[in-house]
Design a protein that fits this description.
The chain is an all-alpha fold and 143 residues long. It has one domain. The protein is built from four helices and no strands.
Length: 143
């Protein structure tokens, strides 16, 4: 296995699994907390996930695109498209809500509604990220 495919597998696996785990394991627990607890958790996650995921979520579609261009693999082409759509969903949906949350000192009355909208975007991007990882694995194993 070459360096490009190894990097793509590692990066897409990390991003895809982290984002999907956020959807199905982390945020369902956060939603059961009182509103002030949800606010504290969401602000905290912005400083942890917010440091790593912008790099990973940007690198993965680039790596997949390079692999697709180099290998002309349908798996890598579809993976690159999937990761790109996930990045667009993130930038258009999640990032504005994250930035608004980051600026808050305390949760406004609309906080829970705003975060449930974020959850919908998160479900879409987390699913796309995991699907992209599966496509990368298929591309790597059939090459």
């Amino acid at each position: 296995m070459d360096v490009l495919i190894a990097a793509l597998l590692l990066a897409s696996g990390f991003v895809g699994c982290a984002e999907f785990a956020s959807v199905v394991l982390v945020h369902p627990v956060i939603r059961r907390l009182p509103e002030d607890g949800q606010f504290i958790m969401e602000k905290g996650l912005l400083t942890t996930f917010g440091r790593v995921m912008p790099i990973g979520m940007t690198a993965v579609p680039i790596l997949a695109g390079v692999a697709a261009a180099r290998d002309s693999s349908t798996w890598f082409i579809v993976a690159a498209i999937t990761f790109t759509v996930a990045l667009v969903v993130t930038i258009a949906g999640n990032v504005p809500i994250n930035e608004r949350t980051r600026r808050m000192v305390e949760a406004p009355e609309s906080f829970i509604h705003m975060r449930r909208r974020w959850d919908l975007f998160q479900a879409v991007r987390g699913t796309l990220q995991l699907a992209g990882f599966v496509l990368v694995v298929l591309g790597a194993t059939t090459a």
